[in-house]
Amino acid sequence: MLIAKIEGHYHFLKGIDPYSCGVIADPGWEIVHVTLEQVLPWREGFDRVEAHLQGVDRDRQALCGMELRSPAPFAMAGFIAFNRDYCRVLRDWDLYVGELNPVARTNVAPLFDPPGEPVLHAFSYTVPAAANTPWTLVVAGAGELREGVLVEQGIIRSGDTSEGAMREKGSYVVDVMVERLFGLGGSWEMINAVNVYTVHPLDGLLEDILLNRLGSARRHGLRWHYTRPPVVDIEFEMDMRGVRRDLAI
C-alpha cells in the first residue's frame, strides 16, 4: 500500500526502519536525482543536501532518496548501529510519517577505492513539475535478505557463492525489484536506470535472470557497480529509478 508523504509531495512503500522500499512523485511533481562529484562523510552530506534544497527553493521535506557508500560490508550488528544514527538524523529533520521512514536508500561498499568512512554518494528530491510530466520514481536497494528483516538467518544461501547460489540470490532480488516497482504503481516503461551491485561474475545471470525480466527498461542497459552490499554475506543487490533529470553537483 502506498503511503502519502504529504509535505514532500510523494508517496512511498513501507519498508523497515532504515529505509522505505521506494518512492514515487505525486502528480504535478517530479523526482530529481543528484550525484555528488565529490563524496562527503554521510553526516556532512545531509548539510550538503539541505544547502542544495535551499538553492532550488525546496526544504528538507523534499528529500526522498539517499545513496551511501561504506568502507566495507558491516556485520549485522554494526549495520543496525549505523542505521540507528542515520535514522536519528531523519527524525531530527522531521521526515518520518508517524513511525515510518519514507526515504528510500541504497548503501553499498565499493571494492576498489573504498571510502574511509560511510559517505553520501547521491540523493533524490521532489520539485514542482507541469501537470503532464511523466511519473518519476526511485526503487530502493535490496539484496538477498528475505522479508527485509535484519537477521543473518534471512540471507539466502549465506556463505555460498556457487553459480547455483548466485542465480537463486539474483532471482530473488529481481523479484523484489518487480514487486516494489509494481507496488509503487510503476511499469518498466518508466525505468531508465537499473543498477546491479556485486563483485561476482554476471555470467549465468545476465540474460535470463536480469535482462529477460526488465521489460522495455532493457534498452537502457544495466549499470554494474563492482561493490559489495552493505552486510557481510549478502552478495547481490539492485536498485532502479526512472527520472527525467539526473544532475551532478
Protein described:
By secondary structure, the protein is an alpha+beta fold. The protein has one domain (2-248): 60s Ribosomal Protein L30, Chain: A (2-Layer Sandwich). The protein is 23% helix and 31% strand. Strands 1-2-3-8-12-9-10 form a 7-stranded mixed β-sheet, with helices on one face. A 6-stranded mixed β-sheet has the order 11-6-5-7-4-13, covered by helices on one side. It comes from Geodia barretti (Barrett's horny sponge).
Short description:
This is 2-amino-5-chloromuconate deaminase. The chain has 249 residues and is an alpha+beta fold.
Q: Tell me the CATH topology.
A: 60s Ribosomal Protein L30, Chain: A
- Could you say what the CATH architecture is? 2-Layer Sandwich
Please, what is the CATH homologous superfamily? RutC-like
Which segments are poorly predicted (pLDDT under 50) over 5 or more consecutive residues?
Answer: none
Protein name: 2-amino-5-chloromuconate deaminase
Organism: Geodia barretti (Barrett's horny sponge)
